Task: inverse folding
């Protein structure tokens, strides 16, 4: 269903990949037609779709016109990079988001809650590409501590020691992961704060306090675990959202991931790559939901028992 | 768009002068100084806006692909810095160490350099030259440059280092057609793959050429690395390596350059250039190009292309609207001091460029009078009307171009002053191309990139170019211009070529199928330690194998040397 819809929508857009690629004087219509034949674009749309589905069922996702490589190879290169970026960011943003949410909920309405709330609102409101650009300027140009983009140093990486190569990779990860983390941690903290405020008036909290636990200990030992369930469910949905939404981060930091490849493919009318990109995101959605279910079962004994 | 710093008022006051000085200093390329001449070594990192798809010259479709294949492969001969396309004047030997014209000029014998080798060690043979032409001419290969070699009948092999090119007819540009358009590729690498499959074959990504650089690494989406070919028949290049780092976002590419991660970025904008005025590590280097931008009127009805356009089919209306546009003010507004005016349908870098051509003047009073006399009278809201039709039309431009967006807004305001209502229609690039190719627009801001040849203009401004094979998107047709352009490409006398071209351009300007807006100012940011040669208008990288870095200015990445990758 998803691929069908994507296939139809992307073909409905004006223009075609060959006209875009061969947009220069002197290219004859015969040459354009030959290219269309080479890539099977001269066939009726229905036939193209049936072929695509048949090939996809065998693991063949077609040929990317813009990359001039099989789509499978393009995804094999780009998807792991995006998952690395989104996965690291997911883990960090949940640690930070949950911690900040707890700090806020411990003293709701207090000075700490208000100040953290303002900062979170600011982070929640800023556009991702803007924050990425500011981070790039701040830490790569004004204060040149980190590289300005890419996955590794394009020249020196291979000539570094093993430790140096690891450090080089980590340095290139810092800015994109940090930017993506800050943006998503802001939302997660708000969810976590809200979930905690929901469970704080519970009877078991009153019991814990009556038994002599301090407010902070009661919150951290009892309330947080109970308030984690909605946040964990959110985590499952966050993975595909991060993977798909990392496109601006990937663009600003020249991170050659799948989001960037898919968006560029839309501009180039690279139909097979767009369809495969959407398919990959769909798989991540399903995978994310599955992971969330497993995580909830691990945390909540009631789910495990049932 | 963001600015890197906020310059003080004092700095801003001096910025134009400093900017001009910086750019003028860079225009001629820097000369090697004394004892550093001949030094080899060093690395250049180029921030490249997008990855490439192929390294097979006959199939290139992007500037990046062209740049890389030009550095990896050699031609038979290289065009001169003046981009002369008539005869062989100015061409310098490459794979062909010499050539001889037949008395009737219907064939040319090329003697290949016997020391020429492919990067895999195989010798370059005359059969490779024949293979290269046949490949481009093969319809199954689908080469975008096939149209340019139609006059070359064939290439025969006299012996392993002697190839004879045979032409269908004697034309002034027959040598250029072969030497410039046919890049020589290895038969032993490509010959076993059917031509129709080369677009998708892995061999098209191997880049085994005969140029002074060879490919050592291509990590898709990240970087390409080419290094000096130390066994090259022309000697090794001065640089050790050039690394192309893919930077798909403009701002990140600029930041990479300013942060020192990249040494060269060839698409600086005016706001970036001002920042370089006092920079001791980097500078701005202006380079010529073969591009020009026009505000084009569609002369046929977008809904029924066999009929003239209800507004722009009328010559006087086009002339009136041209008169309403202050091109110089707009140029200044958009490009500040970097703007290069356009004097007709040609860039200033080609041999037949002529800046003395008479222009339609900027005169809003005359524009109004002309529209009045053409029957377009002002309506109650100020917009002119004729036979119930308002002088209202669309202006198509691609959303990807900041300068064209600025121009679109300025044109809208200018034309409103004479009673024309302009609707801005910004689209993504693919849609823009689709509309352009099908004449589905009223007016558009189009950017043309020509080749150095006069014959290139026929595709854009002759009647033959209106077909699907051409790029005459305005559907402009004037038999006199067709004849003049034919004569310009048929004569063997450069002076007469210029004269015919001038008359053709004069006529086109009078007919006003477009308003001649600007030549895009192309400015690269370059690390000061890198010394360039003269930068050619068709490809600034043509002399990159002679660029050099003085030993005392080298940084860590310059000192890696040519040791193999670990």
Result:
């Amino acid at each position: 269903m998803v691929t069908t819809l994507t296939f139809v929508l992307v073909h409905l857009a004006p223009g075609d990949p060959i006209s875009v690629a061969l947009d220069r004087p002197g290219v004859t219509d015969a040459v354009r037609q030959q290219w269309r034949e080479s890539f099977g674009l001269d066939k009726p749309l229905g036939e193209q779709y049936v072929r695509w589905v048949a090939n996809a069922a065998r693991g063949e996702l077609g040929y990317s016109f813009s990359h001039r490589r099989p789509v499978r190879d393009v995804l094999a290169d780009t998807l792991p990079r995006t998952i690395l970026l989104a996965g690291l960011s997911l883990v960090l943003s949940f640690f930070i988001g949950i911690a900040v949410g707890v700090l806020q909920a411990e003293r709701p309405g207090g000075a700490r809650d208000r100040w953290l709330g303002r900062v979170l609102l600011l982070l929640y409101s800023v556009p991702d590409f803007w924050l990425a650009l500011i981070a790039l300027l701040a830490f790569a140009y004004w204060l040149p501590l980190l590289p300005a983009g890419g996955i590794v140093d394009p020249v020196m990486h291979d000539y570094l020691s093993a430790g140096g190569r690891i450090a080089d990779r980590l340095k290139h990860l810092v800015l994109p992961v940090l930017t993506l983390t800050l943006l998503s941690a802001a939302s997660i903290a708000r969810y976590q704060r809200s979930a905690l405020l929901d469970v704080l008036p519970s009877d078991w909290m009153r019991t814990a306090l009556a038994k002599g636990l301090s407010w902070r200990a009661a919150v951290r030992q009892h309330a947080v675990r109970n308030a984690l369930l909605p946040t964990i469910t959110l985590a499952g949905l966050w993975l595909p959202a991060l993977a798909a939404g990392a496109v601006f981060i990937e663009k600003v930091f020249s991170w050659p991931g799948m989001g960037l490849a898919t968006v560029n493919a839309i501009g180039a009318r690279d139909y097979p790559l767009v369809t495969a990109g959407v398919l990959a995101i769909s798989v991540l959605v399903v995978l994310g939901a599955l992971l969330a279910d497993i995580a909830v079962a691990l945390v909540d004994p009631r789910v495990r028992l049932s | 768009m963001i600015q890197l710093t906020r310059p003080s008022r004092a700095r801003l006051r001096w910025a134009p002068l400093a900017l001009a000085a910086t750019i003028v200093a860079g225009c001629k390329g820097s000369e090697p100084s004394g004892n550093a001449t001949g030094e080899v070594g060093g690395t250049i990192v180029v921030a490249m806006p997008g990855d490439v798809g192929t390294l097979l010259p006959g199939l290139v479709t992007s500037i990046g692909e062209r740049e890389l294949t030009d550095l990896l492969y050699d031609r038979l001969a290289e065009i001169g810095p003046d981009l002369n396309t008539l005869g062989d004047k100015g061409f310098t030997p490459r794979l062909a160490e010499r050539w001889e014209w037949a008395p009737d000029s219907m064939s040319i014998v090329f003697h290949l350099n016997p020391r020429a080798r492919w990067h895999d060690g195989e010798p370059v043979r005359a059969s490779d030259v024949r293979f290269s032409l046949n490949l481009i001419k093969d319809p199954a290969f689908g080469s975008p440059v096939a149209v340019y070699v139609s006059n070359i009948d064939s290439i025969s092999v006299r012996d392993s280092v002697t190839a004879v090119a045979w032409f269908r007819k004697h034309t002034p540009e027959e040598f250029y057609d072969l030497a410039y358009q046919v890049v020589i590729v290895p038969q032993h690498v490509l010959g076993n793959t059917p031509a129709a499959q080369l677009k998708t074959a892995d061999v098209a990504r191997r880049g085994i050429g005969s140029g002074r650089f060879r490919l050592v690494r291509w990590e898709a989406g990240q970087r390409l690395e080419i290094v000096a070919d130390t066994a090259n028949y022309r000697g090794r290049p001065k640089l050790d390596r050039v690394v192309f780092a893919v930077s798909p976002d403009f701002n990140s590419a600029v930041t990479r350059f300013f942060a020192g991660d990249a040494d060269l970025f060839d698409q600086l904008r005016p706001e970036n250039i001002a920042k370089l005025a006092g920079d001791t590590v980097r500078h701005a280097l202006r380079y010529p190009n073969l591009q020009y931008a026009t505000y084009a009127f569609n002369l046929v009805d977008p809904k029924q292309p066999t009929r003239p356009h209800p507004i722009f089919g009328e010559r006087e209306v086009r002339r009136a609207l041209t008169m309403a546009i202050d091109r110089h003010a707009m140029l200044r507004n958009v490009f500040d001091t970097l703007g290069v005016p356009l004097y007709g349908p040609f860039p200033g870098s080609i041999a037949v460029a002529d800046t003395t051509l008479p222009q339609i003047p900027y005169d809003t009073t005359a524009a109004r009078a002309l529209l009045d006399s053409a029957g377009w009278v002002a309506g109650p809201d100020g917009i002119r009307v004729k036979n119930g039709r308002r002088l209202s039309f669309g202006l198509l431009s691609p959303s990807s171009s900041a300068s064209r967006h600025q121009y679109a807004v300025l044109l809208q305001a200018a034309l409103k002053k004479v009673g024309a209502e302009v609707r801005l229609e910004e689209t993504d690039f693919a849609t823009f191309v689709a509309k352009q190719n099908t004449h589905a627009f009223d007016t558009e801001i189009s950017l043309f990139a020509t080749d150095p040849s006069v014959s290139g203009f026929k595709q854009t401004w002759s009647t033959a170019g209106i077909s699907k094979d051409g790029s005459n998107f305005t559907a402009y047709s004037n038999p006199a211009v067709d004849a003049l352009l034919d004569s310009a490409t048929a004569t063997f006398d450069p002076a007469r070529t210029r004269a015919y071209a001038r008359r053709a351009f004069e006529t086109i300007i009078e007919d006003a199928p477009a308003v001649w807006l600007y030549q895009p100012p192309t400015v690269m940011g370059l690390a000061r330690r890198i010394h360039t040669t003269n930068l050619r208008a068709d490809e600034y990288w043509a002399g990159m194998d002679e660029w050099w870095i003085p030993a005392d200015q080298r940084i860590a990445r310059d000192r890696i040397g040519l040791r193999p990758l670990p």
Q: What stands out?
A: Residues 63 and 73 of chain A are 9 Å apart (CA to CA). Chain A touches chain B through 61 residues (CB under 8 Å). The longest helix of chain A spans residues 162-199. The first strand of chain A starts at residue 63 and ends at 64.
